[in-house]
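Q: Start with the shorter request: fold the first protein.
A: Done. Sequence, then structure:
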Amino acid sequence: MKAFKHNNIHRFIFTLCFFVFLNANGNSATDSLTKLLLNTKTDTAKANLYLKLAEEVIYKTPQKGFEYSNLALDIFITNKNKKGEAQCYFLYGQGYFAMSNYDSAKYFYEKSYLLFKNEKHFGLQAKTCLNIGLCNDNGGEYPAAIKNYIEALELAEQVSDTDIVTRAYNNIGLIYSLQGQTREALSYFFKCLQIRSTNLTRFKTNIGGTYINIGIAYKREQKYDSAIYYYEKALKIKIEFNDTHSIALCLNNIGSVNTAMEKHAVSLSYYQKALDLFRSTADQYNLAMAFLNISGAQSGIGDYNAAKIYLDSSFAISTKINASEIYLEVLKFYGELYNQRGDFKTAHDYILMYRNAKDSIYNIENTSAIAEMNQKYESEKTAIEIEKLEKHQELESIKISNSSITFYFLLGAAFAVTLLLLVLYRNSRIKKSTLKILSRKNEQLLEQKNDITDSINCALQIQESVLPSPHHLKTVLDNYFVLNLPRDVVSGDFYFAEKRDNKIIFSVIDCTGHGVPGALLTFLGMDVLQDAVKKNILKPSLILNQLDFEINQRLRQSLDVQSVKDGMDLSLCAFDYNTHALEYAGAFNPLYVVSENQLTEIKADKHPIGSNADGQTDEYTNHSIKLKKGDMVYLFTDGFADQFGGPRGKKFMYKQFKELLVSLSNLPLNEQKEKLHQTHLSWKGQSFQVDDICVMGIRV
């Protein structure tokens, strides 16, 4: 089998036109701003400092950037400062873009864009419009992206903003590169380079990005020496600026040229270095691409098992972030891998999935343009036929005077031609009408799809805002991890943690259903849990009693067969910092404690929360154990153990899950989370995720 040769490598460089990366002085800059904040009196000055702090951290730690942006936003809204409000939304977009969540990023960029437009801040409007284009571009919405780039270019030229002008040139060139029009792409890249070269002080790091794009174009033309020449020029600049993310992009691109020359061992070395650097960033898109490229290199040297493992990782990330280009290449490569293994049926299934997905991504968005061209064609065809008829009739009128026989013959012929043309014209009208109807229906379907997608993404943002933030969890739990893997965009699993006096209350909850229905129950569950803690109900069994009663009442569940029969399974703990005593109560979901490589299971009661046909509140058992320093406590839903996969397509099962937790219990928390995730992906393989997954681990 031939090794994977990625033809969409231009995608790697979009983020170079987007982020202002932090250098080695980033922490000192943050410290300086924090000190200034302590001595700042006025709200406006505080808000501006919060904005600067958000800008410093938004790429490396988006959640921290969101916190600073929220503080600034509250002040700007109170003071009716629309420009400041728009800047906050722009930073939200930056953070979500850094996490490769392009739909959420675009949502906030568009809010920012409208405010900048209303306030007539043309430069900021141009910058925001460019970033909306990047979101559309990374999501595969190329016509929309081109429209955004052209608008950004026009706005930037009005205010002589050469930075945005060069970025727009760059990104338009990338679209040409994607379409295989490398000559046109190079033309735009060299326009960009010409402007940037006139101001090296300002644009030196950006010139590195332009070098990479030129290298990509030359690679497409199979001019590999030229490609490597420009990649190495870019790498030199990025190393000078200690730009970790861009160094990774350069290494990756040099690896791609070696792949094209079938030097797979060399390319694997470059890809591995790039992967290590991408892991230290929040850029999920290029992390997925790095896994894909390593898979190709492993295939090139004949290690198909390793190729499959890396391909699984790329599939999981590209599916999660909706990276259509990578997803297509993964499907195609799965087909090649299974074909190599002799599993032709599975290979055929993946190739069919690839073709269907490709048609969906690249054809639906052009439907209206095709319909318009067909309508134009039919109109021109009809006009030509009518013109022929008019000329023919003129000739016939001249000949009529020669002979009555000729007259009647020609009259009959003219009538026949007229009738034929009328039939053609009628058919043309029917075709145009049909095309209009189909085009309208297609637009309606696309609007409905976009509305549904926007609604679900909005639901995700709301759900994420309700869940405890990483900062809150760190404050309450200290040494912890949470692995949260929704089956769909939003999840029916959620987690909870609050501190009251010297106790922490924490829980992992599995609501009935997946997606939006499950997510709706998470809001209800979170509300009841918070209310119980506020009322100082801190004993786990009493909290579960309260939760069972409230869910049953609010959902009006009773013997009435028409009422809702939904509920929750959960494990809930209360830990006393002073005594190291842990109390636990559970509904179907047990508690695992690992101490000195020995796992203890505390079983849950066998009745769920809220699903009470008789309308009576259930009673739950309160367990109490003493923990010691270093012990691991694990709470979880059933999604991990119930996942189908492995060599025989079986469930993972709790026995294997327990063994896995024991084997990981002595590792640092972040490594435990990563290995749990990788184990799930490896076990799942090409199977679909069957349920939401949530695992919480806490070290005493």
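Q: Next, the second protein, separately.
A: Sequence, then structure:
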Amino acid sequence: MLRPLLVAILVLVGGCCFPETALLGVSRSKPAILLVTIDTTRADRVGAYGYDKGQTKTLDRLAATGTTWMRAYASTPLTIPSQATLFTGQAPPTHGVRNEGDFRLSADAITLAERFGQAGYRTMAFTSSFTTQRRWGLDQGFDLYHDPIVEGNPSQLQWREQRPADEVIDDVLGTLDALPDDAPVFAWVHLFDPHWPYDPPEPYASELDDPYDGEIAFADAQLARLIDAWDERYWADASYVVVTAPQGESLGQGGEATHGFLLHDGSIRVPLIIRGPGFAAGQQLSDVVSHVDIAPTLLELAGIGAHRGMDGSDLRYGGSGFAYSESLAGQYSLGLAPIYAYTNDEGRYVEGAWGSYGAMVGHEIRRTEKLQDGHRKDRRLHRYQRSLGEQLAPEVSLDPQALAMLSAMGYLGAGDPAAKAGTVDPRSVIDAIPLTWRARERIGAGLLLHAQGLANELDRSLPDAFGVKLIHAQIDHRSGRLEDARTGFFELYQRAPSSTLALQLAGIGIARGDWVDAGYWYDEAFAQQPSPEAMAGQARVARLRGDIQLAEDRAAEFLVRYPDHPELALVRAELLLEDRQLEAALDEALFGLKGAPWSPWAHMTLGEVFWELGRPDDAIEEMKEALRRDPWQAPVRMRLTTALVDMWRAYEAVRVIGPLAKNAPDDPEIQELFQLARNSITAGQRHQIRRDRARWIRQNRFRR
């Protein structure tokens, strides 16, 4: 429980009892609140928690001027469900976001941003990773949700380089500088840098032996810029700063390389520091608290008050006194047993296919032991689970590019939420699980042969696992084996129908130029989840099949639901192109490309517009970029081939259509185009001879 000194301070000060005086024009009865989450940061890698090999001066300074919880735990070792808990004050079974990449937070959920907004706060979010984009429902209630789209191929490293901490903090500082001083602020800032793979910038790469420490040090140094600016604007003694992490990082603990599957101190014990009125400077508390406790605490500090349905309690009065954590990644992705944990000041009970227990030693649980069947350590866990009930949040839809991004970050993103609890404990096969991360990372990097070898090895360790079959299907797709990919995704869809899997099948239909098949699967995706990706696909297929009226009707419905979605701009660009409104089509195509720069469709649409505008070189470059984004799009290869032939670039045309002709020897249209490209080489040579002769005549006709 809280120490007597802190209780006395709370009685005298109180988190919400500020005098009604103005600070920079803002009433101090509504204090500014800053919530910072630093991804995959273990508590025991922060100086304030006893670590002396890193550089965390900013976090240590906050701890010296605020209160630190030495035993704070995440509700799950995954970012999206963990952030959902931070924003709702609910455990994962209550808000229903149970795994990474499968769910979005329901619109029915009540979030911190919504409550702060209703109380007159300006609400702002600044994110840095694919796993904190608005597509997961985390944007609910924010006036500003800054989640810029990544450019480049879908690899986790490239994403991280696009949104490092310094860029995120630059965004925050620029926004704060432009704010008027007439309203209180609630801001959430997410820094992604410590996430795997660990590649810190200089000087942190050289100064620290462990690159993971270097990533944390870089994020910490950038955080200092934000805290200094925050304190100058809102004053340290009149506002609140809260720093935590969505989850930790295993770093080999329990045999796990990163995070997501196991529940031990490395993956769920996180830093939690709060600085502001009512929190004693330098105070270190040993209360066991959870992420569910943060939301009700912040609402109480602002004088708004926690609402019904929250699972947590005010941290100023001890919080929950225990922590519930879960990981269903093994069940949904690989058919393994789910893992649940109950941590209190005595120790932690973990239950999967079997139970284990570890006693608390100081602030850590250092050793766990397997329990015999029938041991009663499970009582508190089961009692708490019964009090929560259980539900699943709405399914999220991932198109092929979005699934590739998530997979390259190490997450499957298309699990089977209906999978029954397996009988194999993730702890028993933890040596094999990292191979799934490595395989997905290799797919993202385009190292498909290596990925195939890892997938074959996984088949031996995890036979018939849903996630392993998904990896095989993705490898087939990226390798151009579209029929095999279609079979693989179809078998997965039969096991667990989902909008995400239907979108993969629709994408394969588009790549094969089979508009009927693509249309069927876009309809299936829409039936599973009426997502913008499904609606855009329906409109696009209608246009490709020549049904312009249906395409316009679909686009109109799309416009009502998602007026600013980049794929709607691409639909409009194609329809404007049909109507020969070329300048308007160009505007829409450019807007669509800005919002979805990774999309082959975006580059291809812009290429078509350039072609019709009489800019063939620009058109060909955009078509080539579309092909780089997805090398096995048959319509893209065929259209680019015809463009190159028209421009007398026959050798390039043969190189573009050749691989497709090799993969589709029985397709008469592809073979005919391949032969046309080859014949154009000879024709092009004759054309070049004629052009050279004409140029020679022009140059020499006056020399007689």
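Q: Describe the second briefly.
A: The chain has a mean pLDDT of 87. The longest strand covers residues 283-290.
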